[in-house]
Amino acid sequence: MNHHTSLMKNYGPPAFNAVRGEGVYLYDDSGRGYLDFSSGIAVTSVGHSHPKWVQAVQAQAATLTHCSNLFGIPGQQKLADRLVARAGAGRVLFCNSGAEANEAMIKLARLHGKNLAGEEGKRYTVVAAKNAFHGRTFGGMGATPQEKIQGGFHPMLDGFKFGELNKIETFDQLIDDSVAAVFIESIQGEGGVFPADSGFLQELRALCSERSVLLMLDEVQCGIGRSGHFFAFEAAGIQPDAIGMAKGLGAGFPIGAIWVAEPYAELYQPGSHGTTFGGSPLASAAANAVLDIIEEEQLIEQVAALSPAWHQSLEALAQKYPRLIAGMRGAGYMVGLVLKPEGLNLRVTTAAREHGLLVVPAGHNVVRLLPALIATEAQLNESVAILDQVFAELTT
Asked: Which of 42, 142, 223, 268 would bridge with 219, disulfide CB 3.0–4.6 Å?
């Protein structure tokens, strides 16, 4: 399929026109259905067109869609209370996307650094991780040390240094008196599905506390139940100072948020940040419906219960096709198949789609599997069966 003549070419030509979704299936304009393990890149957390979500969005659209943050929004206040109950004592700032959430956290780091260093403002550096992806704004790109993201846009925003995920000594060496915050993904997604180890997160938490720097975690892709915990970092038993979230929070309606722990939530004061659409009545209704569905259908518990056997089946594929698959990594319903021949992830993505399964390529020659949290055991098994067929064909 060629580019539509009126659209920019910042994306490649689309594989097909998507026109309808139902549960874990996405349908093209010829009526063909696909088992959707891309989930709009980890967005449709409760599946496509979940009846309760649709009802909530329709009812709110018929009542009030937008009023701006000049006025109180009861649904937004309810959503903030629910996120604080999940994350801990603190406050929530709403926005429209993961990139905006990350940008707000970078600004939080600047405010914290100024608070520590005084008016000279020389404490503003953020230590991020190599192989990270934090979005495509200038702040997000600055924290994303990948030339495929930064290329063509130099010079980057000043104030970033990079350690190696899961190597605490590299962060220890970088966190000096110029640093305001550490900023990492609990599970690197776009970079190739690299989870931060629990021990590393625990050591990093201690290091940040010792040196008075913020620990800010990007949970945009791995949060909202995808890992088998509401937040992926919960597996390590730590408490960060700020959390960024988006994607699955709205399950298809754009919304992002940051949670900030007390007392750092006081760093944002009137005029220090703003958003026209963030946390609108319609966005908040969508996100509240997502949380309702997750809780009522016990989806986090389902992910935790079903993912181990699914992971074992994917590991068995690696044993069956050792020349093609190096293994798998990830947590819950966020999995990366690590492939061997260079560029095979793109071929597998195409071949899987031809067989009716949608997956997403990632860095380091990885294919991401990101099913909706509603995916059943049968659907997980179906994904493995399709991949088995794909790899069998690739060996011939």
From this structure: 223
